[in-house]
Please model this.
Amino acid sequence: MIVVVGISHKTAPLEVREKFSANAEVLPVLLARLAARPELSEVMFVSTCNRVEVVARSRTPGEEACLLAVNAAREVLREHAGNVRDFDAYMYDRTGEEAVRHVFRVAASLDSMVLGEPQILGQVKEAYEAAMGAGTLRGPLGRCVHRAFTVAKRVRTETQIGVGTVSISSVAVDLARRIFGGLDQSTVLLVGAGEMAEAAAKALGKGAKSMRVVNRSVERAAELAAHFGASAAPLDALEEELVHADVVVTSTGSPHFIVTKDLVKRVMRARRGRTLFFIDIAVPRNVDPRIDEVDNVFLFNVDDLEKEVAEGQKARHGELARAEIIVDEELKGFLAWVRGLKVQPLVVGLRAKTRGVLVSELERTLAGRLKHLPEADRAALLQMMESATNKLLHTPLSRLKEAAASDDDEQLAQALATAFDIEPREEEVDSAPSGASEVAEPSGSAPSAEAERVTH
Amino acid sequence: MSSFWVDALFLAIAALYFGASTLFILFLMGRQHATDPSAPENEVRPLAPRLMALAAVLHGVHIVVFSLALHICPVEGIHFPLSVVAMLMGLAYIAMRRRYRIDAVGAFVAPLALATLLASRFVGGGALAPTTRMKSAVLPFHVTMNLLGVALFSLASASAILYLVQERRLKQKRLHGVFQRLPPLDALDRAEHRFLLAGFPLLTLGILSGTLWAVRLDADTAADLVRAGFGYGTWVLFAAVLLLRAALGWRGRRAAYGTLAGFGFAMVVLLLYLLRGKSGTVS
Model:
């Protein structure tokens, strides 16, 4: 059973969420830690500015295993976040169908603070690739996440939810205008030189009087600066740079505040009180929120910016209902596929038994009366036997799969099992099949490429 | 000109101020363009400043006509100074509106001009007859400087109030709802400082001429002393705001509070002056 355990902007403030975030260095460690838990058979770790979630599949089906999986994920998160007061109050969990729906909604940006924002899909894809790379996503959960990408694509193309998206960068520019009237007389300082700094440079750099980049690695700062006609400096020169800047965008991966209240107080004295505007888009935050207490200093962090964006996008909520219908459709399709997995052991058993009987008879004949046949003819006969098996089983297996998809397979499965004397092992039910799967994902919107075989 | 035409002109000016006030307030209460703050709809419609400008010009005409009809200097009496303040405020705003990008300040200035105009009509019950004491050139000079100063300080104070509102919205991260079209914070701070800079020398001249006048008249009644005290207090407060800004970089919120405190003192002086006039004791 699929479970989701985590925190998001809906349950925890930024100062709590940042304790849970995982950068590229920590992520493999976390995945390994989760994969080592006996309660979990597949795991993925999603860490964005707005949410940190463990998406996992319990080792065995059933409520009890599901509860154990949730607890295991919670324990790993608790250990990762360290000392967080009221930890449980911030956490949420979803199981089974609700977990799948949640994954779909997250990927489609229906659970985002800024409804329809495009970044979340990329972030989920990164999490998916990291899990695939670490080998922790090999079964139905992988298929679930893959299907979530389809949901996101459909929501984006079939609804207007992503139209006219106001990005965080554009809100930052708007805020800078509300403070300075325009950027043409302002110096923009980028602290950090990663992807987010680059996005900020694109948005803010155009209209600014000048732009500076400070970074721990001066080479990287110089590279980014050269791209935007800015100048670069090392992080050690931050205080001096702050004296001359007007708009400061921080986006380093530092786990601690690099802009403190004391630093800002010193800087403001040197600036003779000139207004200073901080945009902290880093998670964990780079700027101590207490600097907001200093006169003429303004600070907006990720939450503040996104609330501002979301406020301006309330009209988009009308599209939410249409998007939810798509989620429901896809959820139905996925659940039908999952239900198909339930009869997988019987399908495999039927095929194995039929094939076993026919092949055994063939081998006996080939060893006796037909022992003079050359290898090529023997291979042709074997091939013929395989085809006969498939054709013979095609209709009963199709009926079985159809019945399973509509959750009406119990009688037919029982009849087949009895007729062929097959006893599917209980632990195989609701778990990913071993070997080649006979259960293709239901047709509909799912791309044919998704009909890959599930391995476990 | 008959009193009918003077009254008609007065009503027309009041109507124009009212129209400008309504448009400016509607502008201030409106929503900002969702994605582009520099969109045309984020600027006040030209009709509002045009009405304001027309009102201020007609107001000037009204003052001149009325003073000619009554044979008194516009800066003498009780209600004329008020009327002159309203007119000067309107003119100064129109002159500086574009330069300082302070459209929304009109939402304060236009109603204030209207209120002051109406007050000038009803406070004091009419013009004072000129007295022998006012025949000197010093008093009109003193009053003119102070009125000009008060007009500019009114604009500085309106800017300061809007600065505090905008600053609070930014600090609390509540930028939606009403007041979305407030001018940029720095523009308000700059406008406040410039109006203060322009008004301060006028106030200084007003204070100096007032002191000279008081010495000449040997004014030492309690009312004179209190008024003079508040007058000096006003000067000290505005001087402090300007000095601290230049020396220690006190700007923004501190400067806004200082400006409002100075303006409060100036209003007390004006009130005492008006009350003195109402009591009819021109000292």
